[in-house]
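Quick one: co-fold with magnesium ion.
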Amino acid sequence: MKVNKMNFTFSSVPENVTITRMLASALGAQLDLTINELEELKVAVSEAVSNAIIHGYSNHPDCFVTLEFEATDEKLLIDVIDNGCGIPDVKQAMQASFSTDPERMGLGFIFMQSFMDELRVQSEVGNGTRVSMVKYLKSNHSSSH
Ligand SMILES: Nc1ncnc2c1ncn2[C@@H]1O[C@H](COP(=O)(O)OP(=O)(O)OP(=O)(O)O)[C@@H](O)[C@H]1O
Ligand SMILES: [Mg+2]
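Sure, here it is.
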């Protein structure tokens, strides 16, 4: 089966969130996602990348975030990785409205969960966080491009 992999490592600056949205959108368009699915994919990716920058690295701009894509006919795998502070209690962090920042809504993980088909969060305090997301693709019409 054909596999298309891409890895991007970029500085932890907020303007790169926009670029990751564009990358997700460009790849999603090749996979024949609907407009709505594309929007959802962009939100899921940008929420994970924002979390890495804001929470993982406390907005320090001199760190790095890695975004990995792996697309097959069946599914799109997306991993967002930081080497930041880590999450002490992942289950709690993933609950609706939970945030360690009182200014925030605590909805990022909820968006990722509802817009993607699978969400897995691996994290170690002091070591960082890997957010793995899966989107299943409807492969009823084979892609010609
Ligand atoms: N990459 C990360 N590194 C460290 N902590 C994280 C990371 N991602 C999430 N968290 C923790 O999980 C909590 C919940 O994340 P979530 O995205 O759901 O909400 P939020 O970022 O606080 O608010 P919102 O996404 O609505 O702006 C965060 O407040 C933070 O404490
Ligand atoms: Mg968030």
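If it helps, The longest helix spans residues 35-56.
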